[in-house]
Amino acid sequence: MPNSRKPFHMQPPPMPGGAPIAEIAALVGTGCLKGCMLVLLFGTYSETMGMMSNVYLCDLPGAGGIFCGIDDEMTVSHLLAFLLAVFSIAVPMAIWSEVISRGIYRDPKAWLADPTNKIYAILALGVYGLVFALETVNLYTLIARQSVGGPFQTTDTNPMMEFLANNQGLGVFVAALVAIVNTVLGLLAVRAAYSLKTKLAR
Fold first, then answer.
1. What is the pTM of this model?
2. Tens digit of pLDDT for each residue in 57-66?
3. Three-state SS string across 18-36, please?
4. 62 Rama sector, left if φ>0, alpha if ψ -120 to 50, beta otherwise
């Protein structure tokens, strides 16, 4: 009677994969750039938004003690600026994450064929439009305050900022360029995170 069992073949042990140095470096690099962008936006919003700048978080009832331990001179305006900065950073990254995770970039027309997806796309574009306008308006306000009077007037003059303020078209372009850079950095950060996740899953 012939042996029906299949011959046993020794399988070589899987080679241990090297550490994904390139993916980790890309993620750390883009993370640092996004952190710098967060600081930039926080500083911009803090300079251009004076809402409740005289109300100190340390004086608030309940959670005031927590803020006293962090910074006793932190105002509601600082908290609002920080929240808006985080919102400006998170929205582009969330949109790019959905685009990559769902594979929308492979066939956008097929994805938009679903009416529900069209609603999602309109909402996402609307929220991104608000973020883009928020960044552009605040950045241009920071530029324009160098040469205008009123509540935005400042005693510190910067030749570059004054030049951009006097050339409004160029000032708007620079402000919009910073907002576009934030969007591109969001794409690079999300792409690096997914590349690292794919590398580790192998």
1. 0.79
2. 887 777 777 7
3. CCCHHHHHHHHHHHHHHHH
4. left
